[in-house]
Amino acid sequence: MLETIYFTRHGHRSDWIVPVLNNCYPTGLFYDPQLSPHGCNQAKELAQYFVNNTIQLDKIYSSPLFRTVQTANYVAENLDLEILVENGLGEWEIPEPASTSKLREFFPRINTLYTSVSNHPKADETIQDVHDRLNKTMQEIISRCEAEGQIKSILLVGHAASVTAGVRAVLEDRLAVVNCGTCSLSKFVREGGKWKLRLNGDCSFLSGGEENNWAFD
């Protein structure tokens, strides 16, 4: 039975330091930056959090954007896990991302046989659409994990909008305040058949603390 769900946002983006020049990002897409050096350090600290606390994840799901897969990869490397690219965790208001096969050129831990819960979201999604998407995504991911029977703990790596809406989906509260700094960690634990939020955007393990928090409003 699934017992624990973790959410994290990708690390600090390279284009927050230097704007894109001539589609120089790894996937060749101008809207798909990699992590900055600081973001890589954040992702390493996130990965170390799981090691230091002896937390064994069973699955890691990631949005199909380079920066999220890159963040997930640090955790996957430390825990020797594969990465499941999930379109339902994708960014809000962007065009089509790179293909899973393209991403796997950079991240061999990606399981290309995984079937995503949903197609890539439309670029004209409303805030309600994002919440609807994450409701569907979380319901299906939880259902699939339950069906497998042996899955106890999962990590979902997304963006500010998808992480916020995902946490709200599990809480069943679309107005909940969700802390969502880069590489922050939110944690749900199942207690008495209900999901209880035990960490809300925790950044205590990050040397820089909370950074780049974001909200819909």
TrEMBL record:
<feature type="binding site">
    <location>
        <begin position="27"/>
        <end position="28"/>
    </location>
    <ligand>
        <name>substrate</name>
    </ligand>
</feature>
<protein>
    <recommendedName>
        <fullName>Phosphoglycerate mutase-like protein</fullName>
    </recommendedName>
</protein>
<dbReference type="InterPro" id="IPR051710">
    <property type="entry name" value="Phosphatase_SH3-domain"/>
</dbReference>
<feature type="binding site">
    <location>
        <position position="67"/>
    </location>
    <ligand>
        <name>substrate</name>
    </ligand>
</feature>
<dbReference type="InterPro" id="IPR029033">
    <property type="entry name" value="His_PPase_superfam"/>
</dbReference>
<dbReference type="Pfam" id="PF00300">
    <property type="entry name" value="His_Phos_1"/>
</dbReference>
<dbReference type="InterPro" id="IPR013078">
    <property type="entry name" value="His_Pase_superF_clade-1"/>
</dbReference>
